[in-house]
Amino acid sequence: TDGTITTDVAIIGAGPTGLFAAFECAMLKIDCVLVDALADIGGQCAALYPEKPIYDIPAHPAIEGAALIESLARQIEPFNIPRMLGRRVETLKGHRGAFILGTDKGEVIHAKAVIIAAGAGAFGPNRPPLDGLEAYEDTGSVQYYVRRRADFEGKTLVIAGGGDSALDWALSLKELARKIYLVHRRDKFRAAPESLRQLDEAVERGEIEKVTPFQLKALHGESGALREVELVTLDGESRRLEADHLLAFFGLATDLGPVAQWGMDQIRSTIPVTPSTCETSLAGVFAIGDVATYPGKLKLILQGFSEGAMAAHAIHPIVHPDQALHFEYSTSKGVPNS
Ligand code: FAD
């Protein structure tokens, strides 16, 4: 495309709530796109607790965060809903029936209505402040999530961070990588006791080399191909490690950020909505899930699901003004290819 997308509804946020809202829109023959700042769908469930069981999803006595997202993705698969991932929506202009959204990657989305399912805001990895970082990110030399373990086969890795993610990945990739350096600015790691025990074992066996207390200082290489990571201590002692990749796990930054600038009423970092429709103070803009508030609101996934259904029904007359919407059950309508 030329970076311009035209649709009925722009859904901002592909967490559990945004994903289910996409299903509800699709069932009402309303086109939509899902936009998320993260590289993957799933919001908090996928980014913060993929392996934690959730016990209060109706009809699932227990389901892990990642499994819930996988099921939601399967539920919308028949509709081929476009996803724009790794993109933060920065601007929202226009009015009911004709909105224009702009992303940080320069795309422009034209939509008749907007559903904000932004949770606690746009997450993004905390990136280390290193010169020339972007060139190394573009080639995959520097990464913040592990998407394909196979990328690291036979490679020398510098893994930076002192928490569970850094440790878990160091332990998991040691079977694959040629060499792993684990860099942290303190001597002590803060992680699950079992991981700490496994780390000690791996260090003893020479499978992981602990490099502490060091911080990242600079990246060395050419045209985005990493050769060495330079480290420094607080006292100024420096050290260079040979490396094919730097995996940095410094946590996720959250930021309601741009959403706060779009002129809707707000209560702290939430958006008040009319409970029966989830419409915000801006006509044609709806908010659902953690970001939406009204008296009696529960910040639970199940409530976000029902808000997605209400918003989709409230949007129907905006998209299909000439068609009366008769309430139907999903059974009478069916889902394509299912
Ligand atoms: P989120 O999951 O927060 O997703 C919002 C998405 O919007 C994010 O991916 C973000 O990147 C994106 N976004 C935001 N702004 C922008 C922008 N400007 N441009 C592009 N993208 C943007 N709930 C339960 O019901 N049961 C539980 O057992 C449970 N356990 C939990 C355990 C933990 C540790 C945590 C942290 C939460 C738990 N929750 C639980 C809460 C639940 O995860 C949230 O209620 C749910 O994730 C909200 O979904 P959401 O889709 O509204 O928002």
TrEMBL record:
| Cofactor section | FAD
Under the heading Gene3D superfamilies, the entry gives: FAD/NAD(P)-binding domain
The UniProt record gives the binding positions of FAD as 17, 36, 44, 49, 89, 123, 290, 331
Q: Which residues form the FAD/NAD(P)-binding domain?
A: 8-299
Documented EC number(s): 1.18.1.2
| Top-rank taxon | Bacteria
The note on cofactor binding and number reads: Binds 1 FAD per subunit.
What keywords sit in the KW lines?
Answer: FAD, Flavoprotein, NADP, Oxidoreductase
Q: What reaction is this protein's catalytic activity?
A: 2 reduced [2Fe-2S]-[ferredoxin] + NADP(+) + H(+) = 2 oxidized [2Fe-2S]-[ferredoxin] + NADPH
Q: Which residues form a coiled coil?
A: none
Q: How does it assemble?
A: Homodimer.
Q: Which family does it belong to?
A: Belongs to the ferredoxin--NADP reductase type 2 family.
Q: What is this protein called?
A: Ferredoxin--NADP reductase
- Provide the species name: Acetobacter nitrogenifigens DSM 23921 = NBRC 105050
